[in-house]
Amino acid sequence: MAVTDTGQIRAGRDFAKRPVSLFRNINAKIATLPMILTATVIFVGCSIWTIVHSFTNSKLLPKLNFVGLDQYERLWGSARWLVSVKNLMIFGVCSLIATFVIAFILAALLDRKIRFEDGFRTIFLYPFALSFIVTGLVWQWILNPEFGLQSIVRGLGWESFNFDPLYNPDIVIFGILIAGLWQGTGLIMCIMLAGLRGIDEDIWKAAKVDGISTVKTYLLIIIPMMKPVFVTSLVLVSAGIIKVYDLVVAQTSGGPGISSEVPAKYVYDTLFLRQNLAQGFAASTMMLAMVVVVLIPYVYLQYGGKKDG
């Protein structure tokens, strides 16, 4: 009994000598205060302020005159908003699939240690260094039927060749998609290439000894091991999809008509051109909900099912 009491006393003394957890690593905690305050005040505070005012009838200036769900009913009754959401869904699904497929294929080819790998990697990544406005303007010229790709091909003798997606309301969103893929795929390719380079060479040797083909090795072994890389890529691509704005403005300005409208452009036009704050806030809140829908799977994939060590 005395031994037990002595052990408890020593444990109590050791605990008393330890610094209070609040003051442990105090320098690091002080250094993170600006980031915490910024995230709390600007992001959380402004988000709450936006959501609250989306239930009002604010026009040019914000005012707390609540009207319930009127702004949301008006939003989902707007043809322009419905077209924006439809375009975002088409752009998002096609962009996710095409980006992942193209980026992984390019990363797998470069991972084979081909000649001039550095040059190819630079070429593929270079478009990401450009702004979306520049990319949009470049592809607006390329897809212009008067002096772009269509004109060049017809000048070579194919008079029946027709490729003017930016002027066709049925496929204009795919013209914007081409520019988006050209700019963003290189970054995802580099991320996946880094993931592939992190795979142990012994895995490839073991698969080769077992007679597993290269394609099956990628599908059954390599890709499942790259789950964190794919999750990170998913978040980056999804964030870019939801806030796509610059490409649309630079290429089509939402046209022809409203056929290439997207939610981010709807919010901007509603807030600053039509000066309808409450309606813009309602659209912003719906975009925030889209972001949350993206973040929930990310958090689950990263931390779901994990237990404390």
UniProtKB/TrEMBL annotation:
PROSITE patterns, sorted: ABC_TM1 (PS50928)
Topology of this chain in the membrane: Multi-pass membrane protein
Classification via InterPro entries: ABC_transporter_permease, MetI-like, MetI-like_sf
Annotated transmembrane regions: 30-52, 88-110, 122-142, 171-196, 217-242, 281-301
GO-annotated cellular components: plasma membrane
Matches recorded under Pfam families: BPD_transp_1 (PF00528)
Keyword tags: Cell membrane, Membrane, Transmembrane, Transmembrane helix, Transport
GO annotation, biological process: transmembrane transport
Cellular compartment(s): Cell membrane
Keyword Manganese: no
Family as reported in the entry's similarity comment: Belongs to the binding-protein-dependent transport system permease family.
Protein name: ABC transporter, permease protein
